[in-house]
Specification:
By secondary structure, this protein is of the alpha+beta class. The protein contains 30 helices and 19 strands.
């Protein structure tokens, strides 16, 4: 039994044995004995043996081909038709609004860490699931006592929940089964936990009761013969209303003949079965979630129409964000400067301090504030990063060199990160591609659980590997920030992980390493899912990827020239069904976070749009869009409008003075081209002069580039190899000409071809990045010397 019995099946058996009412059908001791026996592969108690057999029957049921067969199933298995189980979905909403409410990095770090703690520690603790770290054991016990106080019932809600009920709890959301009678109680508890801990963060949770047969075959009508089934779908799948719900099967069949597919052409039976599965009931919960989040009332639950709000007054002191009334004022030397805290901001600052320092003690300023709320020590992202490095000795050596990890501090503010790259930092915001399409084909809760865990592992470990390979501890130099407790000569980790949740990533890194990190994250994410890259070097590690994410062949040859502009014949074919797109904003460290966040969102959106277009040509890999913003007045509000008005010239032919977004292969080529410029010692004045001449026309730019290139004293061959031949070859192989610095785009992937064909160039992008990338080599030498000195000492 142990080899084929899953944790999810144990959770379903628990709910079925508990029954539809608050009071369980059997003694709780019998239920616990059943759970232990199922998890260990032993014989279950005789009282619940029939129930376990029902769950086993549910997993073995064949998909019925007609309404008659469906009705026959309900008659053959009346317990599966009459028994109900609860399913709850919830989590935080408007996360960015809460996290980036403050411009201070400590408060941003604290807001993100507090939401992570609730999602990863508090909510699983409802189900008596303890994290691996022993430091959370007492906290989990306190959370369960809070749960019983907040949701008083008999028997207690905490007694009705077990760890096996959780399908996933990551990425800011939780999806879990529960006994049918406790659906509303559990949903209310999830919302209350977020509100009581954060005060101002928005959250939402919904639940519904489903028949056990619906877990296997999706939503069913009562009486069951009224359910529209496969025989009906065969006759009506081409109707628009049916296509809106089940998907446009006719379009997918035609698409499979012309494009590269991730699977065999889908049949009518598979299209129907994909929808009529566990996927359909999760879709219903998602609809209920959006309705409740929008303010719709649910008659059997308290209204969520009015979000958490705190009164203020024009004559009262405000907090640092000037939004809420301050309840405490902290003065030096407890903090570097006098700070006004509302209770919301005080909690963020406290959690940010605990996440940064990893200290079990509450700081004195918070104790003196006399606020009663307390938070456990929060495991910070740097702690998790160091834990990862301990499992990967080679990456630990690559990152730390000869340095000792205890001597490296966590960056207190963005000026520490900016100090590693000429006071410029980069925001990296990444999100998964093709996730929705993949989820639509998941039919069982077990597969949901595996998928969620796989994506979580791939995302987190890809980030750690990228940081370890691209960065090193940085020694502060020429540092003058008076608010910092660190001084020149101190070592810091030159990065800040704001969040890694599900398929979302938000990082702050030095500007010179940003694109290399974004590229590595995208590449490692795909390789980890394909099992081509181990999660850790330790072969005995229990964590592993379980799903199969390999693209299954192609119905049509892929033309790499339609996908990649950089050495298309050398570009690898997409192999993974899932990938990541990233937006990267390079800006000064003192640019307000809330201002930068708006632009990084737009860059991510642009990168994802590019990935969607390339998918039609057979490319399923990652994309990256970036922008270098050297002053906050450079762009007013909209990246797309700025590019259209300032970097697009309506000439004959049309000229696009930038080439972003890039595929991961192209991004590597862009970095190689910048290195070639650096080796060629291309004079900076000429770099900028060629850039300024781009907008004067295609031929003018070509002539000036050729003139300056012929005058170079060294590096001509590298520039020719890594720029001209790699990027600027004509599309027509019979044409021996060279377009440098231009590339031709016929707009074959565009739906709106009014501006095409046109010529685009990477020259402006290279010039924007040149000051950062070219200077970074000196920093690497410096860090190497620093590590050597520490080893010798």
């Amino acid at each position: 039994m142990k080899s084929c019995w899953s944790a999810i099946a144990t959770g379903i058996a628990w709910c079925l044995a508990w029954g539809d009412r608050r009071k369980p059908q059997f003694e709780i001791g019998v239920l616990q004995e059943m759970r232990q026996a199922l998890n260990s592969g032993q014989e279950v108690p005789e009282d619940v043996r029939e129930i376990v057999d029902r769950v086993r029957e549910l997993e073995k049921l064949e998909f019925p081909n007609s309404s008659g067969e469906l009705k026959q199933l309900s008659e053959q298995h009346p317990q599966l038709w009459n028994s109900r189980i609860g399913l709850v979905y919830g989590g935080a909403t408007k996360i960015k609004q809460y996290v980036f409410d403050s411009s201070k990095i400590q408060d941003v770090r604290g807001g993100s860490a507090l939401l992570d703690r609730i999602n990863l520690v508090d909510l699983p603790a409802f189900f008596n699931k303890n994290p691996q770290l022993s430091q959370y054991t007492i906290q989990c016990q306190e959370i369960r006592r809070w749960l019983d106080r907040t949701i008083p019932s008999q028997p207690k809600l905490s007694e009705a929940l077990i760890p096996e009920l959780i399908i996933y709890s990551t990425g800011g959301n939780i999806l879990a089964f529960c006994p049918a009678a406790f659906v509303d109680d559990l949903a209310d508890a999830i919302e209350k936990r977020y509100t009581e801990e954060t005060l101002t963060a928005n959250s939402c949770a919904v639940g519904e009761k489903f028949k056990l047969l619906e877990i296997r075959f999706g939503l069913l009508r009562e009486p069951i013969e009224n359910t529209l089934w496969l025989d009906w779908y065969r006759q009506h799948y081409q109707k628009p209303l049916v296509q809106a719900y089940f998907g446009n099967l006719a379009k997918n069949l035609e698409k499979s003949k012309t494009e590269r597919c991730t699977e065999e052409p889908i049949s009518v039976e598979d299209a129907f079965a994909n929808r009529k599965s566990f996927n359909e009931i999760t879709t219903k919960l998602a609809v209920l979630f959006n309705q409740r989040r929008s303010g719709n009332d649910f008659s059997n639950r308290p209204s969520r129409r009015y979000p958490p709000m705190f009164e203020t007054h024009p004559y009262l002191m405000r907090d640092g964000n000037e939004r809420r009334s301050a309840v405490t004022i902290v003065q030096p030397p407890e903090l570097p400067r006098e700070t006004n805290f509302s209770e919301t901001s005080a909690r963020k600052h406290l959690v940010g301090y605990r996440a940064k320092k990893g200290s079990p003690q509450v700081p004195e300023w918070y104790t003196n504030s006399q606020l009663e709320w307390r938070s456990i020590r929060v495991e910070g992202w740097v702690d998790r990063f160091n834990s990862f490095l301990r499992k990967n000795p080679s990456l630990k050596q690559k990152y730390y060199g000869g340095l000792k990890s205890d001597n490296v501090e966590i960056a207190e503010n963005l000026s520490h990160i900016g100090n590693a790259s000429k006071n410029f930092i980069a925001y990296i915001y990444a999100d998964g591609n093709n996730m929705g399409g993949y989820i639509q084909n998941i039919r069982t809760p077990q597969k949901y659980q595996e998928f969620s865990k796989d994506v979580e592992l791939a995302t987190e470990y890809a980030v750690y590997q990228a940081l370890a390979e691209s960065l090193h501890p940085h020694e502060l130099q020429n540092f003058t920030d008076e608010d910092s407790t660190l001084t020149n000569g101190d070592l810091v980790h030159p990065f800040e992980i704001i969040t890694i949740g599900g398929d979302d990533i938000f990082l702050i890194v030095p500007a010179d390493k940003a694109l290399a990190i974004a590229q590595t994250i995208g590449q490692r994410f795909e390789k980890i899912l394909l099992k081509q890259q181990p999660l850790v070097e330790n072969s005995t590690a229990t964590e592993q990827i379980k799903g199969d994410y390999q693209i299954q062949g192609s119905n049509k040859p892929i033309d790499p020239k339609k996908i990649h502009r950089y050495k298309p014949t050398e570009a690898p074919l997409s192999q993974c069904q899932l990938s990541t797109s990233s937006g990267v904003l390079i800006t000064a460290y003192d640019t307000p976070i809330y201002y930068a966040k708006d632009f990084i969102d737009q860059l991510l959106k642009s990168a994802k749009e590019r990935a969607k277009k390339l998918k039609s040509a057979g490319y399923y890999g990652g994309t990256v869009d970036f922008m270098v913003m050297k002053s906050v007045t450079m762009i007013s509000s909209d990246v797309k409008v700025f590019r259209k008005e300032a970097l697009f010239k309506k000439l004959k032919p049309n000229l696009k003075l930038y080439a972003a977004p890039y595929t991961l292969h192209e991004l590597g080529g862009l970095l190689s081209s910048i290195e070639a410029l650096n080796k060629a010692k291309f004079p900076k004045s000429q770099l900028y002069q060629i850039r300024s001449l781009l907008e004067r026309g295609k031929h003018t730019a070509i002539l000036n580039y050729r003139y300056f290139r012929t005058r170079l004293q060294q590096g001509k061959s590298e520039l020719e190899k890594h720029f001209e031949e790699a990027w600027c070859q004509p599309k027509d192989p019979t044409n021996p000409g060279n377009l440098a610095p231009w590339m031709y785009d016929d707009g074959s992937l565009e739906t709106d071809k009014s501006d095409y064909p046109l010529f685009e160039t990477i020259w402006r992008d290279m010039v924007d990045l040149y000051d950062f990338i070219a200077a970074s080599e000196d920093d690497v030498v410096l860090e190497s010397e620093l590590a050597t000195r520490e080893v010798e000492s």
